[in-house]
Each structure stands twice: as structure tokens, then as C-alpha cells.
Design brief:
369 residues, Jelly Rolls, 17% strand, binds fe (ii) ion, alpha+beta, 4-stranded antiparallel beta sheet, 7-stranded antiparallel beta sheet, binds 2-oxoglutaric acid
């Protein structure tokens, strides 16, 4: 067993739950260990294409019948055989769609962060990349409002996307949804939405979306996570990510049960347009931190398991530790759309043990210099 697995086991013992493994994790293992499997998949697709050579991948993908997502717990591998069988065809279909029906002006606009990120936050981030100093980080800190249990540094929120950014992003997601190409459920618990990834079978692999997510992680998510949670994120703990959208409404998922993410940090960005109002569906974070000072154990009993509720404004980003327990309350009206990005280490490893202060990354390392 490697060190991370041991850390996971002791974490599970202590906390009584299991860190969720996700498809990305398994996919990476499959790429490394099972070349045979990949070959079989390619052969299967070649055969199915030969049956109907006149037909584009897009047409063929549109004719597949989607297996309906059912489970709401531990269901990340639901219908995995189906998605693995048709994964390559679906990737081809996305690539056909992306060349056949795309709006060059919108593509250019969405690929430039400056067009979608709130201007004052964008300049603070840019300035810190150019010149990584604690003074510049202070400006970024001034944009972050602590959310969740006060003073515990579990989560922060900020206004991330402009209204124009929201519109661009949603219109590209709508293009994906209305394409008729099947989409795999986003994760083990949420059933509605899609995965945004170039590799995962059944994910949306439109380059506009995958490259936007990549830039948001490398320019904003990763350095911000290192700055806000310096005790938790070291070099290599945040080198991979898994991105997906989720959706709640009366006809689809209503709520999400308490869980922790398979991530060191999570970015959760609301994608509702300003006119798309909804009611309910607040997120809450649970304060289950153990007290360091046992003299306050009496208070601790009262304080523990408190729920700190957070409601999303359009374009708002919540960034929290993956280890913080959280849930989404039932939606009462309308639809909530969010983009969630779990950030973790190589091969899906999730670092849990905190770092000693002398081992924290310095400001240049946080901002990639
Ligand atoms: O409903 C939400 O915004 C939370 C989603 C979430 O916690 C997750 O997908 O990991
Ligand atoms: Fe979560």
C-alpha cells in the first residue's frame, strides 16, 4: 500500500466514511494498465462504423440510447460498460460537432479569461501572476469572503464570472446539451449535468469547454487554493482535476446528501443567468472540526455539527476544502446550474495530512514562479 492509501485508510477510520473514487481515477489507471482494453474498444468502434459507413460519428452517437442515471450514492460506475464501449465514438462526435457548428466569434470570446472573469478580480490575479508578492495576494484576499464556520478557513466565496461570461459559458453548454450527443452522469451522486473532459468516456469533450476549464484551474483555481489553504496544498497535491456541471430542479435532482469530495480543494461556480431565479437549494458546510483545546470540550458539543448555509448568486464561486463535509438542501422552485471542479493529486490521490508551517509553499510557488 502506498502512503496515500494508508493516509486514506486512517482518515476513513477516523471519520467513518469513504473517500469517493471517481471515474477520472479509474480511467487513468485503465490507460496505464490495460492497453488491451483500449485496443478492444477501438476495434469495437471500427466494427460498428463499418456496419454503417455512410454515417458520421455524430449521427451514430445520436442514435445511441442513453442509459438513464438512477443511483444517488456510490453510482460513479453506473453503466460504465456502456460508456466504455461507446466512449471513442462519442469523442469523435464531439470533435465533428466542434468543427461543424461553431461560432468563431463566441469561441474566441470564451477562450479569453478577461472576457468572462470579473474585471477587478481578474486584474488582481493577473498582477499576482506577473509579480507574486504577499502585497498583491492581499488584494486577492480582499475579494474573498469567508464562508462556512467562521475563522476555520474551510471555504471562501467571491464574484467570479461577469454576466457576459455566464452567457457565453451557458450558450456553449446549451450547444452541447442540444447536440443530441449522449452525456454521462456527472458523478457518484448527482445524476443531471455533464462531465467536461477530453479523456473520460461519456464526457463532453468540446475544446471550448475543456480548455476554458483548464485555464480556470491553472490561472485561478490552483494558485488561489494554494494561497487560501496553504496548510493543505503542497506541490503535486493539486496537479489534476475533474470538472462537471450539475443541475437541480423539480423534475431532476432535488438535493444532495452530505458528503466530502475526492479532492484537496473544490471550486463550485454558479452558472445561473441573473434572470434564472430559483428558491431553496442552498449549500451547507458542516463544522465537524475537532477542538484542539480540550478545555472547550463542553462548548464543542454545542458547536459541533453546525451547518453553515451558503446561497449562490449568479457567477459566484465557492472554493472549499474537499475534506469539508457539505450538502445541498432541496430546491423549491426553478433550476440551479453549477460548474464543479475537484482538484487533486496524480492518479486521483487526495492528500489529507496538513503540512507543518515551515513546509508551506512560498508566494512564488503558489503563483507558479
Ligand atoms: O450542489 C452543489 O453545489 C454541491 C455539489 C457538490 O458538492 C459536488 O458535486 O461535489
Ligand atoms: Fe461536493
Amino acid at each position: 500500500k502506498d502512503v496515500t492509501e494508508q493516509t486514506k485508510d486512517s482518515f476513513e477510520e477516523k471519520n467513518g466514511y469513504s473517500v469517493t473514487k471517481h471515474e477520472k481515477n479509474i480511467n487513468l489507471q485503465a490507460n496505464e494498465n490495460s492497453i488491451g482494453l483500449k485496443q478492444n474498444m477501438v476495434e469495437a468502434n471500427v466494427q460498428s462504423r463499418q456496419k454503417d459507413e455512410s454515417c458520421s460519428a455524430l449521427d451514430q452517437a445520436r442514435r445511441l440510447e442513453v442509459p438513464k442515471a438512477k443511483g444517488t450514492i456510490d453510482a460513479e460506475f453506473e453503466h460504465a460498460d456502456f460508456w466504455d464501449e461507446h466512449g471513442d465514438l462519442i469523442k469523435l462526435a464531439w470533435s465533428e460537432l466542434s468543427t461543424s457548428n461553431s461560432n468563431e466569434t463566441e469561441n474566441a470570446a470564451i477562450s479569453n479569461l478577461q472576457n468572462i472573469i470579473h474585471p477587478s478580480f481578474y486584474s488582481a490575479v493577473e498582477a499576482t501572476h506577473r509579480n507574486p508578492t504577499e502585497a498583491n495576494e492581499e488584494v486577492i484576499w480582499s475579494h474573498m469572503k469567508e464562508a462556512g464556520p467562521p475563522g476555520k478557513s474551510q471555504a471562501y466565496k467571491t464574484q467570479l464570472l461577469t454576466d457576459e461570461g455566464l452567457r457565453l459559458l451557458r450558450s456553449e453548454l446549451d450547444r452541447a446539451t442540444s447536440s443530441g450527443i449522449l452525456m454521462r452522469r456527472p458523478n457518484a451522486m448527482n445524476r443531471y449535468g455533464c462531465i467536461i473532459d477530453r479523456e473520460v468516456n461519456g464526457a463532453v469533450s468540446l475544446p471550448t469547454l475543456t480548455s476554458l476549464v483548464k485555464t480556470v484551474v491553472s490561472k485561478i483555481g490552483r494558485p488561489l487554493g494554494r494561497m487560501l489553504f496553504a496548510d493543505a496544498v503542497g506541490e503535486g497535491d493539486d496537479c489534476e482535476y475533474f470538472a462537471f456541471t450539475i443541475r437541480y430542479n423539480a423534475e431532476e435532482d432535488l438535493e444532495l446528501k452530505e458528503h466530502r469530495d475526492a479532492s484537496v480543494i473544490t471550486l463550485n461556480i454558479n452558472l445561473n443567468l441573473p434572470e434564472e431565479t430559483y428558491d431553496g437549494s442552498s449549500l451547507y458546510l458542516v463544522d465537524d472540526e475537532k477542538p484542539l483545546d480540550f478545555d472547550v470540550a463542553d462548548d464543542y458539543e454545542e458547536e459541533r455539527n453546525k451547518r453553515y448555509s451558503i446561497s449562490f448568486d449568479p457567477g459566484m464561486m465557492l472554493i472549499h476544502r474537499g475534506s469539508t463535509q457539505h450538502a445541498a438542501l432541496p430546491i423549491k422552485e426553478g433550476t440551479r446550474h453549477n460548474l464543479v471542479i475537484w482538484v487533486f493529486g496524480a492518479g486521483g490521490d487526495v492528500r489529507i495530512a496538513p503540512y507543518e508551517k515551515e513546509d508551506w509553499l512560498g508566494v512564488s510557488e503558489r503563483w507558479g514562479k
